[in-house]
Amino acid sequence: MNPEQIIATLRTLVDDGRVLTDPADLEAYGKDWTRQFAPRPLAIVLPKSTAQVQAVVKFANDNQVALVPSGGRTGLSAGAVAANGEVVIAFDNMNRILEFSPSDRTVHCQAGVVTAQLQAFAEENGLYYPVDFASAGSSQLGGNLSTNAGGIKVIRYGMSRDWVSGLTVVTGKGDVLELNLDLEKNNTGYDLRHLFIGAEGTLGFITEATMKLTRQPTNLTVMVLGLADLTNTMDVLQTFQKHIDLTAYEFFSHQAMLHVLAHGLVQAPFDTQAPYYALLEFEAVSDQVMDEAMNLFEQCVENGWVVDGVISQSETQARNLWQLRERISESIAPRTPYKNDISVVVSKVPPFLREIEAVVTEHYPDFEIIWFGHIGDGNLHLNILKPEAMAKEEFFDKCQQVNTWVFDIVQRHRGSISAEHGVGLVKKGYLQYTRSPAEIDYLRGIKQVFDPNGVMNPGKIFDL
């Protein structure tokens, strides 16, 4: 089939007006936040049901048409980029909450439901959906599950996969599978849910999901602590975790905070400067918990780990303190940051971070390094800012060399080159730093079973 025939047939498979070919739409739907690859999709298809997705996938198999899934397009690995004339399947119109079960505390959603929409629905019903991150206002559930998104609450609530009771998927062969039937206990062989979670649409497309909810947290309270040294992040974490269940434990460098403060929307938490800061969140369910938190703070100060700190006294103040961490990405965006999302086990974080910083600084002393991340679960975000006088192409070329050094260190510490953003196109060439050759062969074998014709998000994660 030629391109015109493909587009004409697609229009018969979905509702009128649900196939877009305008250049502006192709540009918008063909990329994600990476901006490293020029989008070049053939067309954008906006199905409204699992049946329509299935029809498109079967057509793609019969005519060897490559498909790329598109959710909120907030990804940072180019997993949703269509750069080679693919047909994009966008889930914006599959955005309904289909069913709610108060007794089971589950909600059945289409894949295009926005994260904040799900969070708001849970809150309206006296419950809580705890997976949370900066892009919650635009990221979609299907994309979250396809990358197993984590975010700021992982230390307490885990990753996206921990909240999935069941999935509806359309496989690469065009079969519709109902996975796990929303059961809490189901020991009947392989749990195929977990193959599709984190698969970045390479095995098939998630079209619906049943998500678990939990109770709403009580009186969330935030502390920001100035740390005397990077190693003190672990001292403070261990001290607090012995006595208080933390809902978040984040960190950021002083350099990162300076960029946030320069925007003028947030104030410094205290006058004392520190090289690093920790942000702790916990439920202050009683005066006893607050007293315990203050005692632990004083203990950290006495041990020389913390130089200063502040604790929120209201919800407004807690939100303002969170802005110190959540506005970092926004504040450094004008500097064209090169982002890396890496992880090791928590105990290895300080030496791991120091080793990376030393290598980058030695080779590129003009590069400004911005550190922040979910240090409570071992996830670090390394951001290298482009020098203003350096051309973007030269900067990205140099960052490719940085990747090699960084991922050598990741491999030596038995860490991951991608903690939560996925592999996509950006990390594909580095997969061997985290996965063994045998593992990659098994991944390719699984891909062949579910997508024998190679139509589902081809070229992502690995090449066949």
Short descriptors:
18 strands; 4 domains; 15 helices; globular; 34% helix; alpha+beta; Uridine Diphospho-n-acetylenolpyruvylglucosamine Reductase, domain 2
List the helices and strands and how they pair.
Elements: H1 3-13, E1 19-20, H2 23-29, E2 43-45, H3 50-63, E3 67-70, E4 87-90, E5 97-101, E6 106-110, H4 115-124, E7 127-128, H5 141-146, H6 154-157, E8 164-171, E9 176-179, H7 193-196, E10 204-212, E11 214-215, E12 220-227, H8 232-241, E13 246-253, H9 254-262, E14 276-283, H10 287-302, E15 306-311, H11 315-326, H12 328-332, E16 338-343, H13 349-363, E17 368-374, E18 379-385, H14 392-412, H15 437-450
Parallel strand pairs: 2-4, 3-4
Antiparallel strand pairs: 1-2, 5-6, 6-10, 7-11, 8-9, 8-10, 12-14, 12-15, 13-14, 13-17, 16-18, 17-18
